[in-house]
Design goal:
Largest sheet: 7 strands, mixed
Shape: globular
GO molecular function: protein methyltransferase activity
Number of strands: 14
Radius of gyration: 18 Å
Family: Belongs to the methyltransferase superfamily. PrmA family.
Number of helices: 7
Main location: cytoplasm
Structural class: alpha/beta
Catalytic activity: L-lysyl-[protein] + 3 S-adenosyl-L-methionine = N(6),N(6),N(6)-trimethyl-L-lysyl-[protein] + 3 S-adenosyl-L-homocysteine + 3 H(+)
Distance between the termini: 52 Å
Strand order of the largest sheet: 10-9-8-11-12-14-13
Low-confidence stretches: none
Organism: Capnocytophaga catalasegens
Mean pLDDT: 90
């Protein structure tokens, strides 16, 4: 049996929790449970060391106040943990996001997500806004990429809006497995899932690229996304704060994109660009 080290983080303002999760994932933390005050994070004891948090930059960011406690625990039943914290949601009164154990609601679109250790249940502001954007799109005969797909929720929403040529990519093995499961739950087995990063996009082209990833990765990969967009293609981005919109938009404009619109939610923002 593998024991884990559990960190319980209190994050203020709470918007920093997603950044913290992203940074912790890069140093070996494999599971996260978002809480009202922040996030609980888990790493296998064999992968833990005293200096593990020294490269977590948000912990020294003066814009955030983050405290934590840690302890060793026995192997966690991850399904039980997220089931305790996952309640169904409704987006714009027409799209529900629920788990398999929730009753089916009376909405036009019903997305079934068993997130387990993957990010993307619709609860977080960035995913919620991305769903709102996609709900406004007509995607029939469009080729779509969900970059950094997490649970696959945005690829699934694109399928609901008519797309039948959809690829989902994530750098994490577990996300790829979980996205594949969720895609099957929703009956969209034509969505392909691959492990990798933006380097996979060489020679590929899409009408719509969706990327709900952190600010730094977006800034690095926007040129690659643009090269992979078809004429009049659309780039839909989130994963960053309102104050980051200026630099994200500048990067997009430097690469030939035009800003179209954005949605804001609790300091987070999602922005739409076209060629």
């Amino acid at each position: 049996m593998t024991n884990y080290i559990e960190y319980i983080f209190d994050v203020n303002p709470i918007e920093g929790a997603e950044i913290l999760i992203a940074e912790l994932g890069e140093v070996g933390f494999e599971s996260f449970v978002e809480t009202e005050c922040g996030v609980s994070a888990y790493i296998q004891k064999d992968l833990w060391n005293d200096d593990l948090l020294s490269d977590i930059f948000i912990l020294t960011n003066p814009d955030f106040s983050i405290s934590y406690q840690m302890k060793e625990i026995e192997q966690v039943n991850w399904n039980e943990e997220w089931e305790k914290n996952f309640s169904p949601i409704v987006v714009d009164d027409i799209c529900s996001v629920r788990a398999t154990f929730h009753p089916k609601p009376n909405t036009k679109y019903d997305i079934i997500i068993d997130p387990k250790m993957s990010f993307g249940t619709g609860h977080h502001e960035t995913t919620h806004m991305m769903l709102q954007h996609i709900l406004r799109m007509k995607l029939n005969e469009k080729k779509v990429l969900d970059m950094g797909c997490g649970t696959g929720i945005l690829a699934i929403m694109a399928a609901h809006r008519g797309a039948t040529d959809i690829q989902a990519i994530d750098i994490d093995d577990w996300c790829c497995q979980n996205a594949t499961e969720n895609i099957s739950h929703n009956g969209f087995d034509f969505i392909s899932v691959e492990k990798g990063d933006a380097s996979l996009l060489a020679g590929r082209s899409y009408d719509l690229i969706i990327a709900n990833i952190n600010r730094n990765i977006l800034l690095e990969d926007i040129p690659t996304y643009v090269k992979s967009l078809n004429p009049k293609g659309t780039l839909l981005l989130s994963g960053f704060f309102i104050e980051d919109l200026i630099v994200i938009t500048q990067k997009c404009e430097d690469n030939g994109l035009q800003f179209v619109e954005s949605i804001e939610r609790n300091r987070w923002i999602s922005a739409l660009y076209t060629l």
